Amino acid sequence: MQASAGAAAGAELLLGIGDDASVVGASGVCVTSVDAMVEGTHFRLQEGFSEPSEVGHRALAGALSDLAAMGARPGEAYFVLGLPGGFSEQQALELMRAAAALARDTGTVIAGGDVVAAPILIVSVTAVGWAAGADALLTRAGARDGDLVGVTGNLGAAAAALAQMEGRAPRSAAGAGALARAAAPVPRLSEGLALAAEGAHAMIDLSDGLATDAAQLAARSGVRLELQLGDLPLADGVVEVAGALEVEPWRLAAGGGEDYELCFTAAPADRERLEQALTRAGGVGVSWIGTVRAGPPGLVLLDGEGRRVQLEGYEHRW
Amino acid sequence: MQASAGAAAGAELLLGIGDDASVVGASGVCVTSVDAMVEGTHFRLQEGFSEPSEVGHRALAGALSDLAAMGARPGEAYFVLGLPGGFSEQQALELMRAAAALARDTGTVIAGGDVVAAPILIVSVTAVGWAAGADALLTRAGARDGDLVGVTGNLGAAAAALAQMEGRAPRSAAGAGALARAAAPVPRLSEGLALAAEGAHAMIDLSDGLATDAAQLAARSGVRLELQLGDLPLADGVVEVAGALEVEPWRLAAGGGEDYELCFTAAPADRERLEQALTRAGGVGVSWIGTVRAGPPGLVLLDGEGRRVQLEGYEHRW
């Protein structure tokens, strides 16, 4: 067999698109996530909603975000495109160009795929990452009594964008920041690597919304997470859109999906070291939003006055 | 990180379904194929067409067939299911049970997936295989002047089944064999491993039809393939269905997709050794259907009288 293409980060692509399968030189452990976006469920293509380029970016970002949540180095991505008759070759190229740009930015090689006819646009991405060993990775299961709960970046952009696109809140100068952020989420790969390397205990990415995803982490770790909703870091435009919706801003930050920030837990003694590691990694900042307690597994959300709040996670509404 | 599940063939699954991504102990080379089946394009669910179990089996078989065509050992499979509102949980279970049965039969571990809402049924499978090194694999690119062209098993079952399901040919006792074979194609994994180990030169699986796939192999190898259509091995029922359609049986055998047999080339001196290796592997038999010539790359199809025939490959008609 002949080598036919360049090297990926952490693994070498030996045979890419054009044969029955792709071949990658492997070592350590292989970390794999699949993530699908379906027109009508995850995005709309009509005027005022998503462009093809946004769909390509978001599909890859969502799959890479799962690798970030494990602390894996990104390696290869494989794309399944289901293309409807009305979707032009030009649109398909725009979609894949945006995906290729994000792949380049993250050191990911698009190594294979499948294109099929479909009645609606479908983009399914398999993202493969690599690590030296399983011990180098973080799961959802390691949170411990006494840990702090941290979150990267800012929350609520996706929910604030959705409210504007659906016309539930007016588009505004402030809200434009949320729209831009939601159209091009950034998988927190360097942050995930740094947090795994520096001894965080458990991690998950926020794809379904903090209220849903933190509950998953709590369940898998067998602990209780208490989050202070008033401490949630808010993305640009969230306060303004929440005002128009007449809800507290933390409802968008904790209830909206697809922000793709990382939620993790760590020992209080490691707090400063983790913050410094994130700074060195060139990553976004961290906010400390709660604590881990022993006791019946579950999630407790407390508002600014310390009252317990019920909040459902993100439900795809399209 | 804790190990959480059993071992795959050739790789160890360290973390399976339930976290952000799956983790597999890796060595050698990783061989990856993605393959999607979409309702209305690749199958129909109404009466007289496909059952959910057939869709699950065929989706995994198609992805594993690509690994067979490389000579890779199967390792893990990842499923994306797009489920429409009218598709019941019971049907989804039937689909995945059939996939799990094929996974078990082939030593494949279903290691992860994603389930999303969709307007039609979508099954996208990522199949990952393993080999000691790239040198142990076969590509489409190695065919040489003077090679023989071989094909495993029998051809035409998928096309003969389609003709019956669409009512273009009557259902018959003879045709039932083709229907059964088309509903549960067998990826030729042991055959692919044996052919790669014993020195075949190039290989491809027949997913789009021999006329299309052999042309791909010819193009990638830069050679001319001459195939004798009268020598094609015919699946049960193909002669009878072709009779009802008033076409030569080789039109179904060379033009129909999804038979998932392997087409390969090998030196004439290796013919007997390869046949013995396939017998030892417990695999299906081989038929020798043509030769490789130097010259302008392409495919030449010759009928029983040595006349050149034009034949289009399989086009999905649903």
CATH fold group of the largest domain in chain A: Phosphoribosyl-aminoimidazole Synthetase, Chain A, domain 2
**Largest interface, by Cβ-Cβ below 8 angstroms: which chains and how many residues each?**
A-B, 70 and 68 residues
> Spatial order of the strands in the main sheet of chain A?
8-10-7-11-9-12-13
Q: What is the distance, rounded to the nearest whole angstrom, between the alpha carbons of the first and last residues of chain A?
A: 46 Å
Give an overview in words.
2 copies of one chain form a homodimer. Chain A is an alpha+beta fold. The first copy, chain A, folds into 2 domains: 12-136, 60s Ribosomal Protein L30, Chain: A (2-Layer Sandwich), CATH 3.30.1330; 148-309, Phosphoribosyl-aminoimidazole Synthetase, Chain A, domain 2, CATH 3.90.650.10. Chain A has helices at residues 52-70, 89-106, 157-165, 173-183, 189-197, 210-221, 238-245, 249-255, 271-280, and strands at 12-15, 22-25, 29-38, 73-83, 109-117, 122-131, 148-152, 202-205, 224-228, 262-266, 286-293, 298-302, 308-309. Chain A has a 7-stranded mixed β-sheet, sandwiched between helices. In chain A, a hairpin with a 5-residue loop joins strand 12 and strand 13. The first copy, chain A, starts with 11 loop residues before the first strand and ends in a 9-residue tail after the last strand. The relative contact order of chain A is 0.17. Strand 3 (29-38) of chain A pairs antiparallel with strand 2 (22-25) of chain B.
